[in-house]
Give the backbone structure.
Amino acid sequence: MSTTPVLEVSGLEMHFPLRRSGLSVVRGRAAEAVRAVDGVNFTIERGESVGLVGESGCGKSTLGRCIVGLYKSTAGEVRLNGVPVVASKGQRNANPRVAQIIFQDPYSSLNPRMTVQQALMEALHVHKTVTRQDAERRCSELLDLVRLSSRVAEAYPRQLSGGQRQRVSIARALAVEPELLVADEPVSALDVSVQATVLNLLADLRKELGLTLLLIAHNMAVVRHVCDRTMVMYLGRIIETGPTERLIADPQHPYTRALLTAIPRLTPGHRSETPALLGDPPSPIRLPVGCRFNPRCSQVASICHETEPNLIFGAGEDADRAAACHFAWTDPVAPTTVSEAPSSQ
Ligand SMILES: Nc1ncnc2c1ncn2[C@@H]1O[C@H](COP(=O)(O)OP(=O)(O)OP(=O)(O)O)[C@@H](O)[C@H]1O
Ligand SMILES: [Mg+2]
């Protein structure tokens, strides 16, 4: 078996240019852009399950779409099984046999005029030449795999519950036996009561199929039970990464700590003094100078207004963890050089 990681993301940037007004062109202002993904580097090994968490608008979906080739990145590279992804407009993704993506709202990604069987057959035929008999057999295997009864095969999406529809979209993604499944908030549109069952299904599929998973979510509670490793994203960058349980037990970035306080039952008692997030994230068009978290950070120091911190790896048993904070791996209590937190947002 090859040792090439299933996914390698290096120096990835995805900037959406803003329309320039006539005045800004006359004044010679540089074109502005939404820096949705702004310098992201990571790899995912075969069989790993990795979480990607962060607030709304921090660039999670954009990153997911770049990975499967739905967006052509502004800079940097994505490699799947060592091969660079070439974005191809209009196609579901560029490398269907390697990576597939599922979305938050399975209703909008399933064709309302196709039965479940037709949707699965279409996925099988698009990617492989198979006989009708083989395709039918494979459809029933796929339904089995996602724990749906074979009776569902003749149903249309509108006749299914949200949880069932998400299972169908998982089955359709798995039809081509991808190595990497990018699941973009697969449970946030579902009733709380069915969220756990779909997450458990993803965890089971990972074991059964040796699937590599990138699970995108707003909060840590969703990724906790499924992901070995978690990456925290803030304004287009990965600002902390590490094995999920240790990241939760001992977060190094003030943003991660604040995210965790949003879920009280995940917060260890000794962190209860950590303040919740101050205000909304700044605009991804004009980022703060220095650390991009500085307007909201409760521990901001002068260096944080000067230099943007890179990911800093821990030492010893924390060598597999990293955080982009000048004070990572130091005393978690406020550093001595703390200055007044700016009052403006
Ligand atoms: N096609 C696009 N054109 C212009 N700007 C975009 C486009 N897609 C996303 N953006 C902007 O890029 C930033 C990141 O958006 P993205 O959807 O990736 O965030 P997200 O983390 O997935 O958010 P959510 O949790 O709400 O799904 C946002 O500021 C968003 O407005
Ligand atoms: Mg999103």
Summary: The CA atoms of residues 130 and 165 lie 25 Å apart. Residues 192-209 form the longest helix (18 residues). Residues 7-17+32-253 form a domain with the Rossmann fold fold (CATH 3.40.50.300). Confidence is low (pLDDT under 50) at residues 264-274, 334-345.
